[in-house]
Amino acid sequence: MSNNDSATAAKAPKKRTRRTQERTEITRAKVLEAATRIFSEQGFEGVSIRDIENAAGVQRGLVAYHFDDKDNLWKTVVDATFGLMRDEFTHRQEIMKELTERDRLAFVVRFYVRFHAKHPELSRLMSQEARQHSWRIDYLTDNHIRPAAQLMEKLVKETQGLDRDQFIHWYYIMVSASSTIFSFAPECELLFGVDSRTEIRVEKHADMLVDMLFGKMK
User: Fold this and answer.
1) Distance between CA atoms of 183 and 124, rounded to whole angstroms?
2) Fold of the CATH domain 1-69
3) Is-contact 183 120, C-beta < 8 A?
4) Exposure string over 141-161, b if 16+ CB within 10 A, otherwise e
5) Beta carbons within 10 angstroms of residue 204's beta carbon
6) Integer-rounded Cα radius of gyration of the chain
7) Where, residue-wise, is CATH 1.10.10.60 in the chain?
8) pLDDT for 42-86, tens place per residue?
9) How far is the C-alpha of 114 from the C-alpha of 210, rounded, in Å?
10) How far is 88 from 61, CA to CA, in rounded Å?
């Protein structure tokens, strides 16, 4: 075998490995995208693994191959969605260092509005799970919701002077108001003939929510 033949033979397994990795990544991405949409629309109990495979357009058995079972797939969806929020927020933390505490809190509220506008599946997923006790709401609360809520409570106490009982109501007002118009986008379009997720509409919503929660910001 010539040197050229040897080099070609050595490259072939690498190419096959790279193609296999690419196919694996594409399949996982398809499954995660489909599972995120279906879990948020129909809830965990209303969805089967076969439903997800059909929606993703992948062969039977690939969900189990890549994610073991429906429970683990659901956790992966949740971790990926909240991980995206955490990553986007982290990229903006340098901006927050230059702000007063009150403006920092307003910045966080605006971030929530903008994120929910881009990812309405998050609030839809939460509305599916937060209505009843289950291992899933325990997982969501322990791993994602409580840490963020505790940080927000600290900011609200420092800037607004609210106690724990007052913060509970403030928190749910903020969470609901920052997301409902986007998760209910089809209803908004039917009622008012507008797309709630346009950039102008999102910014108007963020401005109004900040004004409602804090009064006119100077």
Assistant:
1) 6
2) Arc Repressor Mutant, subunit A (1.10.10)
3) yes
4) eeebbeeeeeebbeebeebee
5) 13
6) 22
7) 1-69
8) 999 999 999 999 999 999 998 999 999 999 999 999 999 999 999
9) 13
10) 33
The confidence score (pLDDT) of residue 170 equals: 95
H/E/C letters for each residue in the chain? CCHHHHHHHHHHHHHHHHHHHHHHHHHHHHHHHHHHHHHHHHCCCCCCHHHHHHHHCCCCCHHHHHHCCHHHHHHHHHHHHHHHHHHHHHHCHHHHCCCCHHHHHHHHHHHHHHHHHHCCHHHHHHHHHCCCCCHHHHHHHHHHHHHHHHHHHHHHHHHHCCCHHHHHHHHHHHHHHHHHHHHCHHHHHHHHCCCCCCHHHHHHHHHHHHHHHHCCCC
pTM: 0.86
Q: Which two tokens stand for residue 84?
A: 């995206």
How many residues belong to the chain?
218
Residue 24 has a pLDDT of: 79
